[in-house]
Design a protein that fits this description.
By secondary structure, the chain is α+β, with helices and mostly antiparallel strands. The protein folds into three domains: 53 residues, RNA-binding S4 domain (Structural Genomics Hypothetical 15.5 Kd Protein In mrcA-pckA Intergenic Region, Chain A, Roll), CATH 3.10.290; 91 residues, 2-Layer Sandwich (Alpha-Beta Plaits), CATH 3.30.70; 76 residues, 2-Layer Sandwich (Alpha-Beta Plaits), CATH 3.30.70. The protein has seven helices and 13 strands. The longest helix has 10 residues. The model has no long low-confidence stretch (mean pLDDT 96). The protein binds uracil.
Length: 236
């Protein structure tokens, strides 16, 4: 792999920055100052230092993002801003894509990765990876309606949903829903089947990953090693 490619896939430097750092003698490979940005190296074996910091090769990246309102879960869209636009260019160059979708007006936890195989596994209906959503609806929900929700109900297109959990708050108009599948507009359509309407929806967890208060709306971070491990276990 070329040095400049290595530094870009490691989310360390753009090609331009690498060229500049090479000229300034700020990059070493196995302790020797790199002379060319296009020099070949073995990403698994060679030790690269960029401006004095060791750079580690990570073929796959995992970003946890707190999706704001109005952004679409896509890599490109002709009309609306995409969640990818919330990341700096160094990250968008890594080929990240959203693992699953949230509607344009749904907020909260989104996982972005360039690991297609893992994403596929996490989203596979066979794995039943759970997703929790904080919600609010227009009209109070009754005990019977919650029971129908828990048993699984039939959507307008005839699809019968898997049982989904619902914890209702005292106001009967908000709470937390847990799904183990992810059909298009699923929660909205489940509420519509109960002649109700979602007015607020925020994903608060996805499998082992949870949204925490220290990640403001629109902000992102890479997963910790521990989170990455748990995600891989979930996808086994
Ligand atoms: N269900 C929905 O209706 N919308 C989402 O974004 C996620 C789940």
């Amino acid at each position: 792999m070329r040095l400049d490619k290595f530094l870009s896939v490691s989310a360390t430097a753009t090609r331009k920055e690498t060229a500049r750092a090479v000229r300034a003698g700020q990059i070493t490979v196995n302790g020797i100052t790199a002379k060319r940005a296009d020099m070949a190296l073995d990403p698994e074996k060679d030790a690269v230092c960029y401006c004095g910091n060791a750079v580690f090769y990570k073929p796959f990246r995992y970003v946890l993002l707190n999706k704001p309102d109005g952004y679409v879960s896509a890599t490109e869209d002709g009309r609306d801003p995409t969640v990818l636009e919330l990341l700096p260019p160094l990250y968008t160059d890594l080929g990240l894509f959203p693992c699953g979708r949230l509607d344009k007006h749904t907020l909260g936890l989104m996982l972005l990765t360039n690991n297609g195989e893992l994403s596929h596994r996490l989203l596979s209906p066979r794995r039943h990876v759970s997703k929790r959503y904080a919600f609010r609806v227009k009209f109070p929900l009754t005990v019977e309606e919650c029971e129908r929700f828990r048993e699984g109900l039939v959507l307008e297109d005839g699809y019968e949903t898997k049982p989904a959990d619902i914890e209702l708050a005292e106001d009967k108009k908000s709470g937390v829903i847990t799904l183990v599948e992810g059909k298009y507009h699923q929660i909205k359509r489940m509420m519509e089947a109960l002649h109700n309407q979602i007015t607020y929806l925020e994903r608060i967890s996805f499998g082992p990953l949870a949204l925490s208060e220290d990640l403001p709306r629109g902000a992102w971070r890479e997963l910790t090693e521990e989170e990455e491990k748990m995600l891989l276990i979930t996808a086994e």
